[in-house]
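worker-03 picked up job from queue 'complexes'. Input manifest follows; two sequence lines, order preserved.
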Amino acid sequence: MSTHIADRTPDTAPVVESPAVRLRSRHLLGIEGLSPEEITLILDTSEAMKEVGNRPIKKVPALRGRTVVNLFFEPSTRTRTSFEIAEKRLSADTLSIATATSSVTKGESLLDTVRNLEAMSPDMIVMRHASSGAPHLLARTCHSAIINAGDGMHEHPTQALLDAFTIREHKGRLAGLKVAIIGDLLHSRVLRSNLTLLKTMGAELWVCGPATLFPPGIEQFEVHATTSVDEAVEGADVVMMLRIQNERMHGHFIPSVREYFALFGMTPARLRRARTDVILMHPGPMNRGVEIDSEVADGASSVILEQVSNGVAVRMAVLYLLAGRDTDLSEVS
Amino acid sequence: MPQVMDADRMSRALTRIAHEILERNRGLDEVALVGVRTRGVPIARRLAKLLREINGDHVPTGSLDITLYRDDLMRNAVGPQPVVRKTEIPFSIDGRRILLVDDVLYTGRTTRAALDALIDFGRPQVIQLVVMVDRGHRELPIKADYVGKNVPTSARQSVQVRLQEIDGADEILIEGEA
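worker-03 finished. Artifact:
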């Protein structure tokens, strides 16, 4: 028996495709804590959402009447736009607040800003903040579902999910793939979320960067760590470049941009060590000529723009799945 | 569990519907089939095969997932979201005669959602509704154009259409007290 809307009889028949899992948390604060089944649920849902983006009318009524606030305390074009498009495609009412034009500049604290927003009862808050753990703080006090759109150097869960979705689209799987992640490992929340996700899904992980940009405690992810790009790229299925984050460099981590490019920049010659069907990824924004050569960035292996399109589908999936569990105020402490 | 139809009768009903489709549409020009996930999809494929056997014409066939159009989606206080599956309509529905195919017609709410979803893909000339079972108890002004079998039921009962492709057998069962 298929699912009939508003069935008055309980659906007792075994439905073959019935989901084994659902998301256990009402927030998406990070990849940490997500089970392989939950990750697969999000990626499978993203596939259906991607199809919506290919329709003549790219909009479905799933989140009609829901309000989503995008609260960005850090500059962002890609992620914020991607969330906004995802929300609109699901018919949610959205508003975006960039802190440069908000009361935060008048000295209001994070909690006060959010409490005031909450008084207007949004259903979800998508938040980016420069401090690691800021969304977790809100999740403890908020009635709204919180989606972490990047917190400091901690996590960026939707980026890791869209990366995994893009890899799965090309390779058909995540388990057993050799994934090399190269660049500024120390400041990267994208790295942290990706390592957690790819490890959960059984990929073979390699990280590479200058010794000065190795985060302490990287061993806990059970990765192969190297300072040799050639070693990291050798036979890789996926090469993921990370941005040199000038805005977070409060010290002398690299001697010069030119030296960095000479030692760690991805060039056509270096990429040839990977498998012939390697895909090259970058979470953006790219620094051409710093971590990546233009010939590689725009080359046949590059899936960088696909990552951006997939971001919308993955964020639609996350918004949709989280919207199913809400308004149970007893869950709020 | 009482059986309402066995494999033979289901097959005969589908053959009859295929003939009715040909008669009513005066051929198959512009006709396309769209099955509502899950069990509408194999039924639509079977109809396409029957129509080809009878008339020799290839009828384009697609599948529609209506989850994102459900009217109860945001009304359940707490609970997991139903799983969204892919919609695949690999042809333009503009100007076509669309046969929307589902297994059971009950409240009519699935059909309402399917109509909304379809219309977001374009502007068909006509939409007709094909169902394997009409069990009554409509809550919306919706009526099927082609019906495999009318089955009077009480609201406490449930009707299961089982299909070879999904369930390993063709039969229609009715469950629960009348």
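worker-03 released lock.
The radius of gyration of chain B is 16 Å.
The first helix of chain B runs from residue 7 to 25.
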